[in-house]
Amino acid sequence: MRWAAVIGSPIAHSLSPILHRAAWDGLGLPAEWRYERIETGLDGLGARLSSLDDDCLGLSVTMPCKRAVLDYCDAVDPVGAAVGAVNTLVPSAGILTGFNTDVHGIAEALREAVGAAGITPHRALVLGSGATAASALAALGTLGVADLSVAARRFGGPASILAAASRLGVAVEQVMWGDGDAVRRAIDAADVVVSTLPAGVADDFARTIAPTGRRAFLDVVYAPRRTPLLESFKNGGAAIAHGLDMLVHQAALQVRLMTGSDPDLDRMKAALEPWR
């Protein structure tokens, strides 16, 4: 029986099974095919990947494994290699290939938001410096944004956001997260802001800002549905792209990679209505 799964830790909250099942049903794939949540931390990652069988369609990968899985891939798509993280694994004929669909998900979610608001993005700010932040840099590049800033607590290390920026061929202005005034100035100067911060991290900061003006904002967090940061930007009139929008688009590309067929986006979006 064919199967797929999402791996990471913690994983109980993941909506990937709902999205993939909705896509599979729309494609008329067998109801017996299963998509599971499999709790997998860094310590058990190697054993988990070595246990994949011939019935596995692929794996969705979430934190904290997006960078670590690169060590187990036989091949990596150019986007994943440049970003330094993959969120999709597809086994075929003994070859495990890693793909990054987060870039596609972020780009499409932002494209919908800026298009609806009539915004032409020029300057962007990314909050955070992890794997998703690196994907956000790549996604913003596809939208034609060349003026990029990153606000984070740290920037160094071999898996850093600066290393990813170098591979992507872009320069970023560094803004220290601890300097609230500098972060607020960077927000005011940006016409696109993407937060890749974990849930709760920016809650206190969100209460100190009142961003106004014509801009788009994406918070990759989708639980809770409305973060204090998202509410601050929404109250200031920003065009909002939600984490659920990113989730749908990145999952749709995963379905294509795993099954070879294009899913129905509207069907996948409808499956997430209870969480909107």
UniProtKB/TrEMBL annotation:
<protein>
    <submittedName>
        <fullName>Shikimate dehydrogenase</fullName>
        <ecNumber>1.1.1.25</ecNumber>
    </submittedName>
</protein>
<dbReference type="InterPro" id="IPR013708">
    <property type="entry name" value="Shikimate_DH-bd_N"/>
</dbReference>
<dbReference type="GO" id="GO:0009423">
    <property type="term" value="P:chorismate biosynthetic process"/>
</dbReference>
<comment type="pathway">
    <text>Metabolic intermediate biosynthesis; chorismate biosynthesis; chorismate from D-erythrose 4-phosphate and phosphoenolpyruvate: step 4/7.</text>
</comment>
<dbReference type="InterPro" id="IPR036291">
    <property type="entry name" value="NAD(P)-bd_dom_sf"/>
</dbReference>
<dbReference type="Pfam" id="PF08501">
    <property type="entry name" value="Shikimate_dh_N"/>
</dbReference>
<dbReference type="GO" id="GO:0009073">
    <property type="term" value="P:aromatic amino acid family biosynthetic process"/>
</dbReference>
<dbReference type="GO" id="GO:0005829">
    <property type="term" value="C:cytosol"/>
</dbReference>
<dbReference type="InterPro" id="IPR022893">
    <property type="entry name" value="Shikimate_DH_fam"/>
</dbReference>
<feature type="domain" description="SDH C-terminal">
    <location>
        <begin position="243"/>
        <end position="273"/>
    </location>
</feature>
<keyword id="KW-0028">Amino-acid biosynthesis</keyword>
<keyword id="KW-0560">Oxidoreductase</keyword>
<dbReference type="InterPro" id="IPR046346">
    <property type="entry name" value="Aminoacid_DH-like_N_sf"/>
</dbReference>
<dbReference type="GO" id="GO:0004764">
    <property type="term" value="F:shikimate 3-dehydrogenase (NADP+) activity"/>
</dbReference>
<dbReference type="GO" id="GO:0050661">
    <property type="term" value="F:NADP binding"/>
</dbReference>
<keyword id="KW-0057">Aromatic amino acid biosynthesis</keyword>
<dbReference type="InterPro" id="IPR041121">
    <property type="entry name" value="SDH_C"/>
</dbReference>
<dbReference type="Pfam" id="PF18317">
    <property type="entry name" value="SDH_C"/>
</dbReference>
<feature type="domain" description="Shikimate dehydrogenase substrate binding N-terminal">
    <location>
        <begin position="6"/>
        <end position="89"/>
    </location>
</feature>
<dbReference type="GO" id="GO:0019632">
    <property type="term" value="P:shikimate metabolic process"/>
</dbReference>
